[in-house]
Each structure stands twice: as C-alpha cells, then as structure tokens.
Design brief:
Bound molecules: alpha-D-galactopyranose
Number of strands: 12
CATH topology of the largest domain: Ribosomal Protein S5, domain 2
CATH architecture of the largest domain: 2-Layer Sandwich
Number of helices: 11
Distance between the termini: 15 Å
Radius of gyration: 21 Å
Helix content: 40-55%
Order of helices and strands: HEEEEHEHHHEEEHHHHHEEHEE
Number of domains: 2
Shape: globular
Length: about 375
C-alpha cells in the first residue's frame, strides 16, 4: 500500500494525521543456511519489500493497531502485554513492546496502521520485518533511539519468548542492519558484521514456490536439537567450533543422522567464508558453485528442501546466464533464489513461469529483488 493510501486509512480510523512512518524490510539469504543458531556465519541481504507502520504517539500507554492486510484492529496496554489469540499478527508487535520495556526502554503508546508487501509465510521473513518495523515505530513514538544490534536481539527475543518460535538471529539482524547494494556477512556468535558489496550486472531472482510450508516449526526445532546433540558428542559449545578438517576426522564416531546434520552446518560455515572471498574477487562462478553446493547439502544432508524447491533450482541451473541457485530460509517450502546475469533474468523468469507449473502443478510468484536498507523511520 502506498504511503498516501495508508495516511488516508489512518485518518479515517483515528481522526487525525499520522506523523511518523516506520519501515523494515524482508530478506533473502544468499548462503549460510541453518548456521545462525549454531553460532556460525550467514550472508543475507535485505530486499526491496517491507512492512510499514504509520502512526501518531498517544499521551497514554495504549497501543491501537490496525492491520490493513488483515483488516483487523488489535489494542493493548503497555502496562499488561499479553498475546491476542484472535489477532496473531499483533503478537509480533506486542512481543516487541514487551521486550523493549523489559530491557529498560520507556515506551509511549501510539495509534498505528500496519501494512506490508513481504509475502506472508513464504520464507522472506515477514515476521522479522514486522518486529523491526515495530521497534522503529516505538522509537518514533517514544523519542528513543536504539542501537541496531540490540534492536535485532530484542526482536529475536520477542519471537523466541513471546511468539514461541525458536528462530536464530539472522532475519532480525539483516532487517535491522541491511544496506542498499550490499549483503551482510554476519558472525552469529560475536554479532560482528561486514558489508559485502554486490557486483553490478547480476540480479537476485526470488521464486516463491507457493507450496504450503509443512513441518516448518516442528522439523526446525528438531534440526536444532540434532545440532546440539552433535556439538555435545563432539565436545564443543556449538558446531561453529568445529573445522571441516577436524569434523572429517571424527565423522564416523557420530550416529548417521547426526553426522549428516553436522556435516551440513560445518561445511556450510566454510562455504559462507569462501563465498564472501569469491564475491570480493568478483568471481561469480565460484560464488554460484557454492550456492549450488549449499542447496545440495540442504537437500541431501540437512533434509529441509522440498520437491518444489528442487524443481526451481533444477530449472534455474539449466538456464544460461545463471551462476547458482538454492533454497533460501528455513526450507520445507517457501522460496528459492537464483543469481543470474541481468540480461538473462527475464528469460529465466519466463522459463520458470512456464516449466515450474508443468512439473509441480503450482503457479510460482517471481520477484527480482534489490538489496535494500534496513529498518528506519521518518516524519511524515
Ligand atoms: C529461519 C530462521 C533463521 C534461520 C533460517 C535458516 O529463517 O528464522 O533464524 O535459522 O531459518 O537459516
């Protein structure tokens, strides 16, 4: 929804003008999947799709939210923040309010209208975008500012503890700190990060498989437990502490499934570092080959891909001008990405639009994405 339409909606609901607009983007992860909760490395970029909240501060501690997408209002008091089972979208925002207050920020209430164009439940982190936009809205309403890393940690805590999803830090971090034209190499242990500039002449094409995400929650948590078990058996704090060489020497000591999960994570961490080095040398073919290896490992060792994701990846890899393709995000459905030369992006999109439905019986949604800035707010 355009800002002017949101403003009109705000006026019609709240009888005054919104004075701030907060926004935060969704993301794709270029490489480094299921490594964040193992204290490893990831390389996501923020995309040019976001969640917006326009609002005006109130004099009391009431937060009134209207979701334009769900056409629903949800209201709460900052004095007693509880989940609203009738408006689950609001729980990401309630959780953020609770965590900001627990961490010592003095918050004011506000009236807000929320709307986004990050597709929901398709693996592009609409929840992290909602959380980070909420952090920004509270900053705007309360005259506060907050460091981007702290903001990401509190938003993650909101999702872990208030919403009850045990995600890692990647999605909130990139939604908070993304930079236009860049991906971010994030060390999920130290939370240090470096910008990695994306080369001119290539497009990141995102393909939403539109297949329902099955098992996403339960299998995600199970993978986390398997990684913890692997770390325990290898005698380390987390899989981040194991090098590829050390792992390969001890792989046979582990139960087969645990060994597969560990192999994915440990090699994937190294692939992220190799991919960043390749990007810095402008070696797109190496970068693409690492993306391909990442997908194959997620499919065969981590077992989180799906027939639909594999179909997109197959079609993309078979198309001229594509450097590499892989699933992105948690998996079990959701989106795949391809790194493709600009002049081949349209023909790749056409091929997927034609072939993917033949192979899967589904219609894909295809977006070319641009690396964008992280969360912010401005006066309107
Ligand atoms: C989801 C989680 C992230 C990360 C990815 C897998 O997007 O929210 O924290 O674990 O899955 O890389």
């Amino acid at each position: 929804m355009k800002l002017s339409d949101l403003q009109a909606l705000f006026r019609s609901r709240y009888d005054c003008a919104a004075v701030f607009a907060a926004r935060a983007p969704g993301r794709v992860n270029l490489i480094g999947e299921h490594t964040d909760y193992n204290e490893g490395f990831v390389l996501p970029m923020a995309i040019d799709r976001d969640v917006k909240i326009i609002g005006a501060a109130r004099q009391d501690g009431i937060v009134r939210l209207y979701s334009a997408d769900f056409e629903q209002e949800s209201m709460f008091s900052l004095d007693a923040i509880r989940p609203d089972p009738a408006a689950p979208w609001s729980n990401y925002m309630r959780g953020v309010a609770a965590m900001l207050q627990n961490d010592g920020l003095a918050l004011r209430g506000f009236d807000g209208v929320v709307s986004g164009d990050v597709p929901i439940a398709s693996g592009l982190s609409s929840s992290a975008a909602t959380e980070m936009a909420t952090v920004m809205a509270f900053c705007a309403a309360s005259g506060q500012s907050i460091d981007g890393v702290r903001a990401a940690r509190l938003a993650q805590r909101a999702e872990n503890e208030f919403v009850g999803v045990k995600c890692g830090i990647m999605d909130q971090f990139i939604s908070s700190l993304g930079k236009a034209g860049h991906a971010l190499l994030i060390d999920c242990r130290s939370l240090e990060y470096e910008l990695a500039s994306l080369p001119a002449g290539v497009t990141v094409l995102v393909v939403d498989t539109t297949a329902p995400r099955t098992l996403a929650g339960s299998a995600y948590n199970q993978r986390r437990r398997e990684c913890e078990e692997g770390a325990r058996l290898l005698g380390v704090r987390s899989l981040r502490d194991v090098s590829v060489q050390a792992f390969e020497r001890r792989r046979d000591e582990l139960p087969v499934v645990i060994a597969r999960r560990c192999a994915h994570v440990i090699h994937e961490n190294q692939r992220v570092l190799d991919a960043v080095a390749a990007l810095r040398r402008n070696e797109l073919s190496t970068f693409g080959a690492l993306m391909n290896q990442s997908h194959d490992s997620l499919r065969d060792l981590y077992e989180v891909s799906s027939a639909e994701l594999d179909a997109v990846v197959d079609i993309a890899r078979d198309t001229p001008g594509v450097h590499g393709a892989r699933m992105t995000g948690a998996g079990f459905g959701g989106c795949a990405i391809a790194l493709v030369n600009d002049d081949a992006a349209a023909s790749l999109a056409d091929r997927i639009a034609a072939e993917y439905p033949r192979r899967t019986g589904r219609t894909p949604n295809i977006y070319a994405c641009v690396a964008s800035d992280g969360a912010n707010w401005s006066a309107v």
